[in-house]
Amino acid sequence: MTERDKHIMERIAELRRDIPGGVTLCAVSKFHPADDIRAAYEAGQLCFGESRVQELLAKEPVLPADIRWHFIGHLQTNKVRQLIGRTAMIESVDSERLLSLIDSESARAGVTTRVLMQVHVAREETKFGFYPEELLEYFRERRFESLTNTHICGVMGMASNTDDTARVRADFAAIAGVFREIAADASLGLRGFDQISMGMSGDWPIAVEEGATIVRIGSSIFGPRQY
Ligand SMILES: *Cc1c(COP(=O)(O)O)cnc(C)c1O
Question: What is the pTM of this model?
Answer without folding.
Answer: 0.97
